[in-house]
Each structure stands twice: as C-alpha cells, then as structure tokens.
Amino acid sequence: MDVKWGSLGEVAVVSFGATVGVVLFFALGVRALAGRDAARTAGQDGTALTAAAGACFAVCAGAVLYGLYLIIPQFH
Fold first, then answer.
1. Domain ranges of the chain
2. Which of 6, 15, 31, 38 is most exposed by smallest CB count within 10 Å?
3. Which ranges does the record mark as transmembrane (predicted)?
4. CA distance 15 to 21
5. How far is CA 62 from CA 3, 14, 18, 22, 67, in A?
6. How far apart are CA 12 and CA 30, in angstroms?
7. DSSP-assigned states of every residue in 10-73
8. Does the predicted TM-score (pTM) go above 0.90?
9. What are the tens digits of pLDDT across the range 4-57?
10. Is residue 59 pLDDT above 90, yes or no?
11. What angle do CA 55, 35, 26 make, to 5 degrees?
C-alpha cells in the first residue's frame, strides 16, 4: 500500500480552508444578528443586517448540504 502524500496534504488543506470558511460565515451571521438587535434598540431598522445574517447562514447551509452530497453516494 502506497500513501500519496501530496494528495493527502491537498485534502487536509482544502478541508481546513472549508472549515475556516464555514466558521467565519457563521460568526459573521451571528454578529449581524447581534448588530440587528442593537440597531433595533437604538430605534433604527435592522433589515439590512437581517438579510446579511440570512445570507451568511444560507452559505453555511449550502456548504453542509454540498458536503452531504459528496459523502452520500445515492445522491450522485
């Protein structure tokens, strides 16, 4: 059995980058929701921040669904 170290390293780098990306978008979504609450407390409209949070959470959901698509062979 031979290990292809280059391929293993590539998978490690891509999985690390995807993980950091999903965590970053989720954190941005939570931050946008917190900003929305602060804006509403200040008497402003928080619609843009709500839309930004929804977009961030949609990116996270898309990444999770794509990962499931790649893992489950019946979806191919």
1. 5-75
2. 6
3. 12-34, 46-72
4. 10
5. 32, 17, 12, 10, 8
6. 27
7. HHHHHHHHHHHHHHHHHHHHHHHHHHHHHHHHTT---HHHHHHHHHHHHHHHHHHHHHHHHH-G
8. no
9. 999 999 999 999 999 999 999 999 999 999 999 999 999 999 999 999 999 999
10. yes
11. 40
* Residue that the structure tokens 């170290």 belong to: 5
Residue 59 has a CB neighbour count (10 Å cut-off) of 17
Can you tell me whether residue 2 is helix, strand or coil?
coil
Tokens encoding 58: 């949609």
DSSP state of 3: -
Query: Taking a C-beta distance cutoff of 8 angstroms, is the pair 42, 33 a contact?
Result: no
Say if residues 64 and 18 touch (Cβ distance below 8 Å).
no
